Amino acid sequence: xxxxxxxxxxxxxxxxxxxxxxxxxxxxxxxxxxxxxxxxxxxxxxxxxxxxxxxxxxxxxxxxxxxxxxxxxxxxxxxxxxxxxxxxxxxxxxxxxxxxxxxxxxxxxxxxxxxxxxx
Length: 119
Hints:
Structural class: mainly beta
Shape: globular
Number of strands: 11
Strand content: over 45%
Mean pLDDT: 96
Helix content: under 10%
Low-confidence stretches: none
């Protein structure tokens, strides 16, 4: 059974830091690209950061220089270190696992964790 379980969300003041974690199970983690998305009510889900199976990374312009994505294939974990947080970073953050092969795609989502940046 595939599971992606996010943790580490919470309330933080502007300028503060949080580290999100995503624990994966039930699929060959090391062969999947992993991403973090975020969403606010009434808005589309936005990709924040991604890390490939080969460890190449992508960041949305809005978080470059502040967020860092990493993965530990031995522990089946992906992390999002968020620094210098801003109120506009407030959202539910979701973990995504994705693998694309010829004529097939596998996509799994976690349940999300709330991040609130407020004084």
